[in-house]
Amino acid sequence: EWHITNAQRSGVVGEVVVLMAPWIMPLMMLLAGVSTWYSLRRRGNGDYLRERTVRVFLPLLVGTLLLVPPQVYLERRMRGQFAGSFVEFYPHFFDGIYPTGNLSWHHLWFLAHLYGYSILALPLFRYLQHSRGSRALHGAARVTAGPAGLLWLALPLVVERSLLWGLFPERHVLTSDWSNHALLFVAYVYGFVLAGTPWLGMVIDAQWQRALVAAMIGSTAIMTGAWVGLLPTRLPPPYSFAYLAFWVLYALVAWAWMVALLGFARRRLNRTDWLVHRAQSRAYLWYVMHQPVVVAAAFVVVQWHLGVAGKVAALAVVSVAGTVLSSALVLRVPWLAVMFGASAPARVRAEVPSPAPGPIPAGNLSVPRQIAVLRDGRETPPPATTGGRWRGHDGHD
Questions:
Q1: Which residues are paired to 97 by β-bridges?
Q2: What does the pLDDT look like over 10-69, one tens digit per residue?
Q3: What distance lies between CA 255 and its chain's CA centroid?
Q4: Whose CA, among 82, 302, 307, 397, lies 20 to 30 Å from 117?
Q5: Is the distance from CB of 13 to CB of 308 less than 8 angstroms?
Q6: Does the global pTM surpass 0.85?
């Protein structure tokens, strides 16, 4: 069960969670890999590690001490496990490890994983930026432009979901979450490659619609299994044929949704209007701030005399508004913004890459032809075909 739960449940709302579960966190880690490419492009190793410490580790530490305790407190209050005030509860936050105790980083586990990956992947990323790494990526281009396309890149996800999930049941514990490490670290590396090489973006432009169809079919199967009660409580025994079949499907669905959503974003979000720019510059802070708002809103909403639909609508409105407002307030205090991983607005615009450009303009080389040119050894496409690349904040590809 989640931290705050409603007495009445909804299968329909549960299906929404099932739909997002395979891909939401891997996609976030992939986008973090994109951001890492831009960061390393203009920083030495020392500056990069200092930047990661300020932008990732510091919010993890501060958020654990300031944002997580109210969540645990409200959960204990809701379940009748604590009756005093928050001031009285705070010293007890350090009593044992959650869930039997109280100390936890809750949603900030993502920052802990990201900080570890940022350090561990640095030698690999520097290698990929070198000429030898570039040749290795050209070999990958030949594979992804072949008959199975981007499906080859799903193989690591399939293997790890099938083999590791049953062996390492602990979730979001940094030292033992090896199943999620395998999934998220691969997504992180894929994001770095996506930002640094043009061919992968071109392959996504060519294949995202097929990936969307596959994602929808696979998600329908998983959601049907959840609706009839097969998942997750009656998941087949580990390493049985049905177990392996389920996790293969789950991993393929995760990858298909990531490709489909990236392709859609490259096609539809190639604009610089106010909304896109605001989402770019504040998305990271929204993530850091969102869960305390959601937990606090849920603590109040679940006690209202409303149906599930009314509570869900109220929770959605209050959570979005509260997250945006709290983030705006944090940005108004420069030292507080730094503590939560944000920066002054001008600095944020420089740190966050601009949105992915749209598809290759009609009349230029076809996407398959461009991929063929790239995989045969060309480092950059012809000038007329740069539309499929990710463009940096400074206007250079």
A1: 103
A2: 888 888 888 998 899 999 999 999 999 988 988 999 999 999 999 999 999 999 999 999
A3: 12
A4: 397
A5: yes
A6: no
